[in-house]
Amino acid sequence: MALIAPSLLSAEFTNFAAALEFLEQAGADMVHCDVMDGLFVPNITFGQPMIAALRKKTKLPLDVHLMVQDPGRYVAEFADAGADIITVHAEACTHLHRTLQQIREKGCKAGVALNPATPLDVLEYVMNDVDLILCMSVNPGFGGQKFIPAVLEKVRKAAKMIASTGREILLEVDGGVNEENAPELIKAGATLLVAGNAVFKNTDPAAAIRHIKGDTLL
Ligand code: DX5
Ligand code: ZN
User: What pTM was computed for the model?
Assistant: First the structure.
């Protein structure tokens, strides 16, 4: 079993309120919010005002994935908007340690995301400062891409790193996650799965949520 954070990137943009209502009823654990700046990644999505709007419509935790260059500039604003988890990319931070501190000082859980090609080594000296590690299993910027299999081994290694700390650190996987690869990811140690297309483009989105979480394996 894992937690699931469906990504609104694949939901109907003109009706996020309906998506939130559906996610609450379908047993989603969190809502994954993909913030893109058109600089760190080619695409642009939405920013702090959208997080504030979502906050008013749901009690589910908001898992905010900042695909933004120098995200420290915006951490306080996203926290004030109502984010519960703020995840920044190691590749986008000149001062990663400081940015993680800023997130925690605002009372949010601090996450670090790594692109598929980024080694886990960058986490070595910030393990005490993270509450979540996000292994990207596609190159960030778009929903609906194909899962990169090499990330499975990375998830196994990350799970070992987490175990050696003795702390509870969420291990999130994001990109191309679906009902087929979710069991392998959970076996590898993933504890939080993001799914965009596999949920919202499914003919039975509620069943997809259950299957990806691993409910049907019990
Ligand atoms: C990609 C985003 C993902 C995306 C996942 O840049 O970070 O969260 O929404 O979508 P799927 O599950 O369709 O790959
Ligand atoms: Zn994401």
Answer: 0.98
Nearest to 19 by CA among 214, 209, 176, 212: 209
How far apart are the two ends of the chain, measured CA to CA in Å? 8
**Residues with Cβ < 8 Å from 34, sequence gap 6 or more?**
7, 8, 9, 45, 65, 67, 143
Residue 218 has pLDDT above 50, yes or no: no
pLDDT in tens, 17-76: 999 999 999 999 999 999 999 999 999 999 999 999 999 999 999 999 999 999 999 999
Alpha-carbon dihedral 65, 71, 74, 75, rounded to 10 degrees:
70
* CA 64 / ligand 1 centre spacing (Å): 12
| Atom number of ligand 1 nearest to Cα 145 | 14
Coil vs helix vs strand at 88: strand
Q: What is the pLDDT of residues 129-170, one digit of tens each?
A: 999 999 999 999 999 999 999 999 999 999 999 999 999 999
34 is catalytic: yes
Q: Quick one: which ligand is closest to 195's CA?
A: 1
Residues, CB-to-ion distance under 5 Å, ligand 2: 34, 65, 174
Tell whether the model's pLDDT for residue 217 goes beyond 90.
Answer: no
Q: What residue ranges line ligand 1, CB within 6 angstroms?
A: 7, 9-10, 32, 34, 65, 138, 140-145, 174-177, 194-198
Q: Which 8-state DSSP code applies to residue 134?
A: E
Among 96, 97, 90, 94, residue whose Cα is nearest residue 116: 90
